[in-house]
Amino acid sequence: MKNDYLTRLRYATRDAHKQVELTTNGNDLISNPNKDSYALFLLTHYLFYNEVSHQMKLANEIDGLKLEDLPKQEVIGIALLEDLEILNIRVSTIPTIYDYQSAFHALGMYYVMRGSTMGNRIIFNELSKNKNFVSWNASNFLKTSLKTATKDWTSFKNELLIYLNDNYKEIENGSLEGFQLFGKLHLKAKKSLDLIEA
């Protein structure tokens, strides 16, 4: 059955998912909400969004892969930039660092990007109890990703299933590298925010 491929993909990337949670300190934002950790959360997501969106643009231009889900995610990038600007973090043009490999490899990375916002409801609900977070007034990314999260995630999975059967391995490899990339960009964001020594 087609859905078996989604289950297989989820289990194949489970360890990589756990590893990136360790790298990024998982739920640290919830347990220790402060402006630095929130800025790091936003910038990491923006860098990842920028990288994966570029990959998907090339997948369309070079290999003709076009997802109906992709245009819906443009508001995510806008919301991230709005929040970063509110926190006085200026983001100039960011060069991409990952070489394009194939459309289905890019699709695997996109799967990670889409999944990375699925926990935002929990994050938003917890942070909304924090007076400092509320005072920052920088919750555009969290609110935007919540509006149609379940509906859009379901429709995206249906699109993904179209390609999984014949291109599973490429998509799995792209997903695994997507998790690794998220971890690397988290460290890059830390350096750019001077939260660790460069």
Automatic annotation (TrEMBL):
Coiled coil: none
Pfam families to which the protein is assigned, alphabetical: Heme_oxygenase
Biological process (GO), any one: heme oxidation
Molecular functions (GO terms): heme oxygenase (decyclizing) activity
Gene3D superfamilies per record: Heme oxygenase-like
Protein name as annotated: Heme oxygenase
Species for this entry: Aquimarina spongiae
Lineage, highest ranks first: Bacteria, Pseudomonadati, Bacteroidota, Flavobacteriia, Flavobacteriales
